[in-house]
């Protein structure tokens, strides 16, 4: 039995973050095309390098490292399936 592949897209990441962190502001950008030829790039220009700008009530009272950990934890399935880098900006 093989695992069902997941779509590694900005839209899929956005849906996951909305589900888990209920953000008040959210922007997910696929910046993979900017990293062609770099380690972790897959040659397609999509699905490997993302930027997340997010504000969430879940961040209240948390240090930046804890805020980032919440985002990484929510997106772990994408990391497990080939996302190489996520730049996080918590607002």
- Head-to-tail CA distance between termini: 42 Å
Structural class of the secondary elements?
Answer: alpha+beta
Strand content: 15-25%
Outline, from the CA principal axes? Answer: globular
Give the uncertain stretches in residue-range form: none
What is the averaged pLDDT score?
A: 87
Estimate percent helicity: 25-40%
Offer a concise description of the structure:
The protein has 91 residues and is an alpha+beta fold. 31% of the residues lie in helices and 21% in strands.
What attributes characterize this protein structure?
91 residues, alpha+beta, 3-stranded mixed β-sheet, 3 helices
SSE layout:
Layout: H1 10-21, E1 25-30, E2 49-55, H2 64-74, H3 76-80, E3 85-90
Parallel strand pairs: 2-3
Antiparallel strand pairs: 1-2
Describe the structure.
The protein is an alpha+beta fold. Helix content is 31%, strand content 21%. Strands 1-2-3 form a three-stranded mixed β-sheet, with helices on one face. It is globular.
